[in-house]
Structures are given as structure tokens and as C-alpha cells.
Amino acid sequence: MGAAGLGRGDVRLIVAAAVAAVLSGITHAVSSGDVAPFAVSAVALALLAALVGRAVDALGDSLGPGATGVLQSGLGNLPELFVCLFSLHAGLYAVVQGTIVGSILSNVLLVLGLCFIVGGVRHGTQTFAADRARTTALLLVLSVMALLVPSLTAALHTPASGHEKALSVVVALSLLVLFALSLPGTLARENAAAETAEGERPARWPLAVAVGVLALTGLAAALVSDWFVDGLTPAINALGISQTFAGLVIVAIAGNAVENVVGIQLAARNHTDYALSIVLQSPLQIALVLAPVLVLVAPLVGASFTLVLSPLLIAVLAMAVLVTMLVVLDGESTWLEGSMLVALYCLIATAFWWG
Length: 355
Prior knowledge:
single chain; mainly alpha; A middle domain of Talin 1; two-stranded antiparallel ribbon; 12 helices; 2 strands
């Protein structure tokens, strides 16, 4: 345990995030090529996202166990929120749509699949509390289906077509209410899962340290997100990828990369309930909190954002959450199931390479 209640891992994460943020500012200021500023900012964003998550977790510990889930849901996706807002301001709507969908896909297919593979290879068939996982997955399916309503009204040319903006606001408000209603049950499931892996939880930080780190990290995340978006278009042109692919894969993975590693490590240690809790809560927060908030606050950055997605985004999103529901129904996981999920993610990502 280090100074101020910080463990060695905490100190290393803080130092790494600070160094990456400074390097991101330098590469942005000197305009060092088309790809370098974007790549450095992506690494910095991933480290800052992990630090935000760690600070929020520590703050919740200091305030009490019931506050942790609320804070994680409200603040855990700050870096992705900043990236999406700056992207909307820059007119990169496809990036924002891709980020929302990609954040869900990367968790329920790529990360969950890697958890199953790593855990299955080390421990064989793993078991988890099917009722908790099923409830979370069902809530995710229902939330995503609600997100898709404006898209379907437009794609099917229903009488509501042409009113997608108003419908998106109604859906956003409904999902935020659903989020509030789901909090008691979500907190109970998360606490139960965490109790099975109590030894995996990092040491608690003093309240002042947690608040200070969260404030500074939030400010740094806002700056780096701005630099990241500035470097996005030159990098897209240089790499020959589409805006949708950049959001679907690069931004989505960067925003959760380090935190997702934690879920995989927990699966490797056979703490499957806690691993699934971490992995499935992230896309649930995207559907219930991040996407609705973007609809409501987009006018503040001079943009308009609706929940109307392309037909292919609709299809892959529905496909992914339904597959996830089927996978967790039996309360067991194998490396083969994980391989199938990862393969599906790779196929979907490839389909969006060109747009």
C-alpha cells in the first residue's frame, strides 16, 4: 500500500494515464503526422477511462456500497460521452452511431467471448448464477429494442416516420426512467457478484483522494477527447477506414479497453459471476444512460442527434444482444461458445470496414 491509500497498481495507472495525456497534447500541438496524434490520444483515452472507473469505484466505496453502482452508471462512461459530444460538434454523426453500437457489441461479443475462452481453457466448463446474468441480459435486450424503435419507424416508413426526433426524445426519457427503476435490482446483483471475489477488489482510497483523482481525470478526459476527435478525420483518411468503423471498433474498444481486461482476468481466476457483472453492466449503461443522454444534450453542442441507425447497424445490434441472451440462459460457459462470440464480432467489424 502506497501513500494516501493508493496501491502500486493505482500509482502505475495514474502515472501511465498522466504521461499518455501529456504525450497526446504534445503530438496534437506539433501536428506530428496524420495517424500519430490519433493513436496516442486513443491510448491516453483508454488509460483515462480505466482511471475514471477506478476513481468512481473508490468513491463509491467511501460513500457506501449502494452508491457505487449509481456512480459507475452515471460517471463510468465519461470519456465516451466526451468523445461523442465532440464528434457531434464536429459533424461526425456516423462516428457517434458507431461508438454507441460498437460499445455494446465489443462487450457482449468480443469481451464476453474472450472471458469464456480464457476461463474455459484454464478451468473447463465454468458456471455462474444464471438468474442474475439472465436478468441483466434481459434488461439489456429490452433496452436495445427500445433504442431501435426510432430506427424501425424510419426504415419501415410507418406513420411515425418523419417524427424520429420527437420519438428519440421520448425513448431517451423512457430509458432514463427505466434506468432509475432498475437501480435497486442492479445494485443487489452487483454487490452479490462482488462478494464472491472480494479479494480481487483494489484497496480503498480516502474520499479526498478519490474526488481529486476523479475531477482531474474528468478534465483530462475532456481535453484528450477533443484532441482525439481532432485527429480522427486525418487518421480515417490516412488509414482508409470509414467513420462507422472508427466508432464501431476503435473508439468503442479504446473507451473500455483497460477495464475490459479486468473482466477477462476475473474469468481467468474463475470469478465468473463478477466477470459477467462487469462485462454486461457496461453495454447496459450505454443503452440506458449514454445514448439517451446524447439525444438530450446534443443541442448544447450545436447538434441534433436521433436514434435512427442504418439497417445494418439495427441488424447487428439486435443479433448481438439476442445471442448474448441465449448464451447466458443455461448458466454455463465454454471456450467454444467464447470462440463463436469472438468470430461473430470479427465478421461484423469486417462488414463495416468500408462504411
